[in-house]
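The protein record filed below.
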Amino acid sequence: MPSDPTILAFDTSAAHCAAALLYGGVIVAERREAMARGQAERLMTLLEEVLGAAGIGWRDLDAVAVGVGPGNFTGIRIAVSAARGLALGLGKPAVGVSTLEAQAEGVARPCLSLHDARRGMTFAQVLGPDGAQAPVIVLDAASIRPDLPRAPMIEPSALPPAMARIAAARLGAGEPIARPAPLYIRSADAAPPRDPAPVILP
């Protein structure tokens, strides 16, 4: 792995489709689009546009980075599935980075990273110098580790550059890279239908 790997990072964990390209230690291309739906259809084209803007081809990548959440259940699955497919097709590693970790990039550790979970709830994660505690979902964010500095809350669509830099640091440190997996802190909003199942006639 080169000392300054070329990494394409992307995220669809909320109502957006966003990507950034790290090349030579610098973000050389970035794109973010607000969208409530349609990320699955738009993502790959958007990634190609980001690569094209920098004159980089798929085979020039050293790795991909992907936002694994927490966030929208379907959006997370879209991005993680795309990252796994790209890693398999390119023969390159895929690095999963959480929204909470990316939000705290560059913030002195230990710190607390918070992200709006909607419905009056907040995702929270304590990040220490040697690792991170498991993220939780809370009703009263002010009561969680008031002794720690807070990472600034950043719109998730702006986080792919941080995700790319975090992935580069992990790869440079020689950390074992596991296949990215969705970070679900609460269950999906979808519920089984209330209507009775149809009767199958003989």
